[in-house]
UniProtKB/TrEMBL annotation:
It comes from Amantichitinum ursilacus. This is Anti-sigma-K factor rskA. GO terms for biological process: regulation of translation. It comes from the Bacteria. It holds the Pfam family RskA_C. Coiled coil: none annotated. PANTHER family: ANTI-SIGMA-K FACTOR RSKA (PTHR37461). The chain crosses the membrane at residues 89-110. GO terms for molecular function: sigma factor antagonist activity. Residues 99-218 form the Anti-sigma K factor RskA C-terminal domain.
Length: 227
């Protein structure tokens, strides 16, 4: 896998930011970031683009059982010898060393923030039924839409086409056109997008839906939010 491929870096950065890059793959990506200033810049730009969506999600108070579990764990920690592997003194000592290492790493990681190249008016995270995010859509003030897959979707669209739909409240889906399975697509149909609250992507025959409405399964859906 060529980690210097800009498209692959963008896809991995998106997965890293939204949290779908996990386990060894996430740790490997963090190692790559530590040695690659351009990759760190890509991750920061992706964070800037997705942060408005995070702010749009209303906060949710954790249920009471979560606090009870935390209280039980805290009591259990107090019963551990202070110099055992679960002990407070030992972890404070180790934390001091980690803090020094983290400070040194921050000097390497923190770079001047570049100017934003795109200021979207609306955004949407398009996800499947399992809430796995596959694409990010950014709507500019002029109504153009840039759709970027966070992974290579070519396997899903083998011998098929991916079609983007704008869905107004209480209305029928309107086609915004076909999008690429691997790479960003810029769609300029502001008159179709006007009034839409939701974007969706369906799997269609090559060339798109023959009826003007989705004929195949709807794979990903995302609500548009103002930013």
């Amino acid at each position: 896998m060529n980690y210097r491929n800009p498209l692959l870096q963008t896809q991995l950065a998106g997965q890293y930011v939204v949290g779908t890059l996990r386990g060894p793959a996430r740790r490997r990506f963090e190692g790559l970031m530590a040695a690659d200033a351009a990759l760190r810049r890509t991750v920061r730009e992706t964070e800037d683009q997705l942060l408005p969506l995070v702010r749009a999600v209303p906060p949710v108070d954790p249920p009471a059982r979560v606090w009870r579990q935390i209280a039980r764990r805290v009591r259990a920690m107090r019963e551990v010898s202070p110099w055992s592997w679960g002990g407070l003194y030992l972890w404070r000592l180790l934390a001091g060393g980690f803090a020094v290492a983290a400070l040194a790493l921050s000097v390497v990681l923190v770079q001047p923030k570049p100017a934003a190249t795109l200021v979207p008016a609306q955004m949407a995270l398009l996800q499947d039924k399992t809430q796995h995010v596959a694409l990010v859509a950014r709507v500019a003030a002029d109504g153009s839409v840039r759709v970027s897959p966070l992974e290579n979707l070519s396997g899903t669209a083998t011998n098929k086409a991916l079609e983007l739909w704008a869905i107004p409240p209480g209305g029928a889906p309107k086609s915004l056109g076909l999008i690429a399975a691997n790479g960003a697509t810029l769609v300029k149909r502001p008159q179709v997008l006007a009034g839409a609250e939701v974007l969706a992507v369906s799997l269609e025959p090559p060339g798109g839906s023959p009826t003007g409405a989705p004929t195949g399964p709807v794979l990903w859906v995302g609500k548009l939010v103002n930013v």
